[in-house]
Amino acid sequence: MSFNLSLTCLQYTSTEQESVTLKAIKPLINEAVNHGSNFIALPECATSLQSNPEQTKKITTTEAENISLQTFIEIAKNNKIYVLIGSLPIKLEHKIANRSFLIGPGGDILYRYDKIHLFDVKLPNGEIFKESETYSPGYQAIIATIEQKNKIKIGMTICYDLRFPHLYQDLAQNGAEIITVPSAFSNTTGPIHWHTLLQARAIETGCFIVAPAQTGHHQCGRNSFGHSLIISPWGEILADAGKDVCFINTIIDLGEVKKARLAIPSLKSHKRYLTNF
Question: Which of 158, 155, 266 is nearest to 203 (CA)?
Answer without folding.
Answer: 266
